[in-house]
Amino acid sequence: MKENLNNKMKLEFISKSSNEAFARVTVAAFVSQLDPTIEELADIKTAVSEAVTNCIIHAYDKRQGIVKIIAKLKDNEVIIEVSDNGKGIENIDMAKEPLYTTKPNLERSGMGFTIMESFMDKLEIESIVGLGTKVTMSKKIKVKQENENDEELETSENK
Ligand SMILES: Nc1ncnc2c1ncn2[C@@H]1O[C@H](COP(=O)(O)OP(=O)(O)OP(=O)(O)O)[C@@H](O)[C@H]1O
Ligand SMILES: [Mg+2]
């Protein structure tokens, strides 16, 4: 069994769309410590990308603000908080509905929260109108016991 790995990082950046890739790649690099599969990592990157894009496009609109990410590793689980101090969400239940968007003219499809929900294990949205929004999502990374055994076999055979 792998040792329990508990770790935490915090990232803050200006709400520029050029920072979306930076955020996604940075979180992925941090999560790599849990040895995720390519699929698990791709899921996490997509979810982070959706959450960060929401802060840039909806929370701050044309203004500039700070987007904050806190990522935690707890045993084999990753917990990611993405928050802003933007305009907030009036009706969270409605915002979570697939295809619901307040910006249909900007080629938004209204699928961001649905994607976060399906690619991660858990999604929680807290928001106060005028103060900001915090999205917390988590995902368990599968422990690769079979591979570990394979490696052990290989090393003993090679001796
Ligand atoms: N951080 C946020 N601050 C303020 N409003 C938000 C925030 N995130 C989401 N919303 C609101 O929730 C709605 C739904 O978000 P969701 O990400 O599901 O769809 P979308 O961003 O409109 O479209 P897509 O993500 O498919 O491009 C948004 O249209 C917006 O009104
Ligand atoms: Mg979105």
Number of E-state strands? 5
Give the termini distance in whole angstroms: 23 Å
What is CATH's topology name? Heat Shock Protein 90
Radius of gyration: 18 Å
Structural class: alpha+beta
The CATH architecture can be named as: 2-Layer Sandwich
Portion in helices: 25-40%
Are any ligands bound, and if so which? adenosine-5'-triphosphate, magnesium ion
Largest sheet properties: 5 strands, antiparallel
Which regions are unreliable across 5 or more consecutive residues at pLDDT < 50? 155-159
CATH secondary-structure class: Alpha Beta
The arrangement of helices and strands along the chain is EHHEEHHEEH
Search tags:
single chain; 159 residues; alpha+beta; Heat Shock Protein 90; 5-stranded antiparallel β-sheet; 5 helices; 39% helix; disordered C terminus; binds adenosine-5'-triphosphate; binds magnesium ion
